[in-house]
Amino acid sequence: MNLDKKLVLISFLYFAEGFPFGIIEQTLPVYLRLHGMSLASMGMLSLVSLPYALKFLWAPAVDFLGSRRRWIAGSQLILAGLMCTLVALDPESPNIMLWAIIASLAIMSATQDIAIDAYSIELLDTREMGVANGFRQAAYRVALIVSGGLFVALGGWLGWTTAFMATAAILCISGLISLGLPHVDVRRSPFSAASLKAPFKDLFARAGVVPVILFILFYKLGDLAMGPIVRPFWLDRGLTTEEIGLITGTLGVFAAISGGLAGGMLMNRHGIYRGLWIFGLAQCFSHFAYAFVAAYPVTGHIGVYFASLAESFCSGLGTAAFLAFLMSICNREFSATQYALLSAIFRVTGIAAGTFSGFATDALGYAFYFGVTFLLPLPSFAFLSHVRNWIPEESKSAEVRSKSDIDHVRDSAEEPTIVRLRKKDYPAGEPARPAYREGAPEISEIRDSRAP
After folding, report:
1. Residue 435: beta bridge partners?
2. N or C: where does the chain have the smaller number of CB atoms within 10 Å of the terminal CB?
3. pTM for the complete prediction?
4. In whole angstroms, how far apart are CA 313 and each of 136, 228, 416?
């Protein structure tokens, strides 16, 4: 399958992945609050994020039982059925059934994520993962806009029953299309109790696993630490809700998508390792734009717009490289479990950063805190030499270079250049003999030089 067809599939799959996430994280809170759910109960909605963090616990089932296509299609069709059930429940009288449906939506959405990520890893060659992750980011963000923005508006215009039934229809169509996804041939171990440990043993038994885990924890720490503070900063700088909507819904999304696509294209040419270096530094330095704007209020709203665009674009670059790296280091035999585990490790950083970001900003102020977020990812660059050994394209290049050097030495030793001197150049009375170039092995006969 050529790259163009793969990119179409990746775009479809990650739109399908982002669509239910937007419904759960953005649309449902609006729907439930409009129907009178208390703020205390609304706070419980934060628990729906748990399945996304804990999905590695049941990811081995996706690795060993059934095909990726069936898991993807089955999850989408079940999600469609759950949305239809949600319509029949009264949101003004929340009960255990309503919470069970919401929890089931999150679990099935996370399960779909596991299967789609695994299928994508198996579909793509390592050199294709960079550009594919650019398209992945774009499709995912478009899905969030559609499900978290368009369908909220649709609920207000035509009613929530219509909006949720339309959601179910899209999920159902997506599930039917997924049944026809091309088969990807990957060797898998037979299921057994021992095989449940295999993905974890395979990952943690590799040389240099500790530096790689530390790299994963630190690489996006600056973005994760700044994220929860950006919107309060906008409000404190006097931006209106309309201006914030323009940044988050239009300019910021466009910049992030552009960054992801640009990063993907560049990695397709220069590789993931260079992308991690260059794009990682870019996302660090983009935080200085926010620090500068916070330190000098005279920059006004234009300064805030510029800082937001720069940060969104550079974050898109860094995210494209980071996700391509995570995909590339997964063993294709255990791709579902290993990618789910790696993404869970990454989420731990986000939870920790979000927890302390408000306290740190109160203590330091916006300008100084944004400067600190520049420093937070820097430790990750100390681990890049270990990371390089894990990237298949880099390890293969090293093997090729090593083999080339060995062949060059062997050729130099076994095949010296022979120069036949003219008879007059030999001392008187000595027979003519071959002379060898300077630096070649001193041997008396060509036959001996080729002896094992």
Report:
1. 419
2. C
3. 0.74
4. 15, 18, 56
Distance from C-alpha of 440 to C-alpha of 436, rounded to nearest angstrom: 6
> Using CA atoms, how far apart are residues 312 and 258, in angstroms rounded to an integer?
9
Alpha-carbon distances, residue 318 vs 24, 130, 285, 353 (angstroms): 26, 11, 12, 18
Q: Are residues 146 and 234 in the same domain?
A: no
Distant-in-sequence, close-in-space partners of 114: CB < 8 Å, separation ≥ 6: 55, 58, 59, 62, 71, 336, 339, 340
Pick the last residue of a domain from 181, 215, 232.
181
| CATH code of residue 365 | 1.20.1250.20
* Sequence-ordered alpha helix ranges (H) in 205-299: 209-219, 221-236, 241-246, 252-270, 272-285, 287-295
d(CA 254, CA 141): 9
> Residue 225, Cα to own-chain centre: how many angstroms?
18
pLDDT by residue (tens digit) across 248-291? 667 778 888 888 888 888 888 888 888 899 999 999 898 988 99
* Domains: count for the chain: 2
Contact 308, 252 (CB under 8 A): yes
* Residue labelled with tokens 């091309």: 182
430 class by beta-carbon count within 10 Å (0-12 exposed, 13-18 middle, 19+ buried): exposed
The set of residues, in sequence order, having a beta carbon less than 8 Å from that of 249 and lying 6+ positions away, is 145, 149
Q: Are residue 166 and residue 210 in the same domain, yes or no?
A: no
- CA 61 vs. chain centroid, Å, equals 22
Are 161 and 207 in the same domain?
Answer: no
* Dihedrals phi, psi of 12, to nearest 5 degrees: -65, -45
